[in-house]
Amino acid sequence: MRRTDKFTLFWGGPFSNWYKRDFTVKGRKFNCGEQLMMFAKAMLFGDLETAEKIMKEPNPRKQKMLGREVKGYIDKVWQERSPGIMAAGLFHKFIQHKDLTQIILDSVGTRLVEASPDDKIWGIGLHEDDPRAWDEAQWLGLNRLGSTLDVTRDRVAEHVAARNASPSYG
């Protein structure tokens, strides 16, 4: 992870969907953001069989491969719905662990950027060592994960502020 006053670039680590840290959403335990995303994808399209396989698979790479097998998948629907699904799920990941809460709050004031050279949808299509990664106009990808994490960070900050403003009882 590398940071300037404008960007926090990452590929791997706590902001990555492949980062292993258990968290729970609506009573269901996920081992990483990738599992959440692929499970949600399968459920969105009514593919319960693949959703079950994803939940049994501990490896994020294999979870992603299973997500590519979702029956009834419609790309336009997924592209529209996936950022909101991920923001809601990642909120739980970051508020359920104090260290992750602090890590995401430490990025306030910067734009989170997934510097994945292999991903032009969720990442920017460039590695953090590539000088173009520091110039948004030169990005090759959409940075959907970074933008989703920016939204998540704002929600986490609001949650922490509200919690800190509430009086403690007993």
From TrEMBL:
Catalytic activity entry: 5-amino-6-(5-phospho-D-ribosylamino)uracil + H2O = 5,6-diaminouracil + D-ribose 5-phosphate; 2,5-diamino-6-hydroxy-4-(5-phosphoribosylamino)-pyrimidine + H2O = 2,5,6-triamino-4-hydroxypyrimidine + D-ribose 5-phosphate
Matching SUPFAM superfamilies: YbiA-like
Chain ranges of the NADAR domain: 13-155
Protein's organism: Pseudomonas amygdali pv. lachrymans str. M301315
Name recorded for this polypeptide: NADAR family protein
Keywords: Plasmid
Top-level division of the source organism's lineage: Bacteria
CDD domains tied to this protein: NADAR
